[in-house]
Write a structure and sequence with these properties.
heterodimer; A: 180 residues; alpha/beta; 31% strand; globular; B: 417 residues; 5-stranded antiparallel beta sheet; 3-stranded antiparallel beta sheet; 49% helix; 16% strand
Chain lengths: 180, 417
């Protein structure tokens, strides 16, 4: 396996995604006494090329480590970030890679990646139940953490009207949390 | 998920409350006789919505203490990953001395957590004298943590931009005394766990996770390393003082020359990591630079800076159970975190559970499940339902524990005769 530098990784995305790469950033920081470099890469892609980007990551390292998918409610749209680690197993060579996809609120759909990375199943199930983003082709549609009797259409991680605001118990003498 | 050709007569839900795990989770085991043919993990019984509190209620400094309470055992790992994420988001420097103190505290935690696990593992196979021995040995590091931080657990050492308490020269002799104690105890534990024939019988070739499966199901920590995946955040990524220390991931072939990926290999990895932690702390004591321990000691000023900050960051830390991950975004003008996502190591390791258990026996469930050191919660009883008669057989915690103990006895008698 040939290991690319962070700049080469970004370039490789540029070539593969061909105009569907919205933004790419490299964050670096010197650490402790020896000033070794910590590196994290943030890649923002259009939804059309999302699967292509994941497949490309699997080419950089055959089994990239997917930590988790994080979710961010940005008002009109939501953001999913797939947090990968590539080049692990080598001393100080690992790169943290955040693959970002923005979805408009009126079309919350993203294809599954469990066929490429089977270990994505828990985090995809969690995203589906907590945020209302539909994962197309997910092999296991059940909830992961929420109980079976949790109401449909309420998504705990959302900050809009579908959030869990009506379910909160406000203690006497306290004000409820207001979401603007 | 069950193929038509496999005849399943029973489904045994182990959990949500059960002795094999320390917190609530349910395993639905489909069994054919004594053999497990399918496993489904049902989680969520202890979901507390901690991220929601960090996003809607707490300021980032309050969230450190919330992160500390994600887990009662790795109470250093979550704040460690969390402060790194916030430091990256708000671009806050950490003094070099603080990086070393963070590592010392984290490694002490690894020692206590691995010993806690070793005790539980011995108990699961009915070897209670070893359980008492290991937990007695563990007390020494608990005492040291109390001496250094004021508490046995939930140590509140971490702060954004450093640590809250210094470890001074005067405290070094007390730390070295504990490390010497563990060097002696290590040899004893090694003999007990790796050479005792009962332990070997119950753990060798039990609960195997192959290398490719560990990779496909994104296993992490000792579970992945015991399957031959040399993945260790302390080795892979430059973070905190670990970047200075040339850490090497421990895989079982260091000791045995081969990787099987069974429970025995997971014992080897954890045992050797206790020794590795002792060495790391010794090197930290030798290399620790002098200087400040906090970039911004005034909390009000720190909070004002965090309120203005705009950006996002990730933090990873190699917790005793594997990679602990936090993602944080800060938005200018907002007092709370804009987003916060936590991924604890067991979240990733649970996906390997079906592979580990399928093909094994019911009596191996406690030790095989405990072998990933799951951090969820404990199971008090299991209900077996006969699918033909719909009759419920309730297996209490004692029943299941006894099944495991009996198996050990049976194997032992067989060997003695």
């Amino acid at each position: 396996m040939k290991m690319l530098t962070p700049e080469e990784v970004v370039d490789s995305f540029n070539t593969i995604l061909d105009g569907n790469l919205i933004d790419a950033r490299i964050y670096q920081k010197e650490i402790a006494v020896k000033k070794n470099l910590y590196t994290s890469i943030w890649i923002h892609v259009k939804r059309e090329s999302f699967r292509k980007a994941v497949e490309h990551i699997c080419k950089l390292q055959e089994y990239p480590h997917l930590s988790v998918i994080s979710f961010d409610d940005r008002g009109d749209s939501v953001e999913l970030i797939y947090h990968f680690t590539i080049y692990y197993g080598h001393h100080l060579k690992a790169l943290s890679l955040g693959l970002r996809v923005a979805l408009p609120k009126n079309d919350l759909k993203i294809p599954t990646i469990t066929d490429i990375i089977p270990g994505a199943i828990f985090t995809e199930r969690e995203i589906q139940e907590m945020t209302g983003v539909e994962i197309i082709g997910i092999p296991d549609k059940r909830r992961l953490f929420l109980p079976e009797d949790f109401p449909e259409g309420v998504y705990p991680w959302r900050k809009d009207e579908t959030g869990p605001n009506d379910m909160l118990r406000v203690l006497p003498g306290r004000e409820g949390i207001k979401n603007d | 998920m069950i193929e038509g050709k496999i005849k399943t007569s029973y489904t045994i839900p182990v959990g949500p409350i059960h002795p094999a795990v320390h917190e609530a989770i349910r395993l639905d085991l489909s069994i054919d006789g004594e053999e497990i043919v399918d496993v489904d993990v049902v989680a969520g019984q202890v979901h507390r919505g901690i991220e929601w509190l960090g996003i809607n209620r707490n300021n980032p400094v309050q969230s450190i203490y919330l992160a500390e309470r994600v887990c009662g055992i790795c109470s250093t790992s979550h704040p460690f990953a969390f402060v790194q994420a916030v430091e990256q988001a708000a671009n806050i420097e950490v003094p070099e001395r603080a990086e070393y103190i963070r590592v010392i505290v984290a490694e002490l935690e690894r020692i206590h957590s691995h010993l806690l696990w070793a005790g539980v593992a011995a108990h699961e196979i009915g070897f209670d004298s070893v359980f008492y021995l290991v937990w007695r040995v563990r007390e020494e590091v608990m005492d040291l943590m109390e001496y250094l931080t004021g508490n046995r657990n939930s140590k509140a050492m971490f702060q954004i931009g450093g640590v809250r308490r210094d470890i001074t020269e005067e405290q070094f002799p007390r730390i070295r005394k504990t490390l010497e104690y563990y060097k002696t105890a290590f040899n004893q534990l090694k003999t007990v766990f790796l050479e005792d024939r009962t332990i070997r019988m119950r753990t060798k070739n039990v609960g195997i996770l192959k290398t490719t499966d560990a990779l496909r199901f994104t296993a992490t920590g000792p579970t992945a390393r015991a399957s031959g995946v040399p993945k260790d955040v302390r080795q892979d990524e430059a973070y905190s003082a670990y970047a200075d220390l040339d850490i090497k991931a421990i895989t079982p072939d260091i000791l045995t020359g081969t990787v099987v990926g069974d429970v025995y290999d997971r014992i080897i990895v954890r045992l050797l990591e206790v020794k590795q932690s002792i060495e790391i702390i010794e090197r930290c004591l030798a290399l620790m630079p002098s200087g400040d321990i906090l970039t911004e000691p005034k909390i009000a000023k720190l909070l004002a800076r965090l309120k203005k900050a705009e950006g996002e960051g990730v933090g990873r830390h190699e917790a005793p159970r594997g990679e602990c991950f936090h993602h944080v975004r800060l938005q200018g003008g907002e007092e709370t975190l804009a987003t916060w996502k936590i991924r604890a190591p067991t979240y990733a390791n649970l996906m390997s559970m079906p592979t580990i258990l399928i093909g094994g026996q019911i009596a191996d469930v406690p030790i095989a499940f405990a072998s990933i050191d799951p951090c969820i919660s404990c199971t008090n009883r299991a209900i077996a339902i006969d699918s033909r008669t719909k009759r419920k057989l309730v297996l209490t915690d004692k029943d299941l524990h006894n099944l495991s103990v009996e198996k050990t006895r049976r194997l032992k008698d067989k060997l003695d005769s």
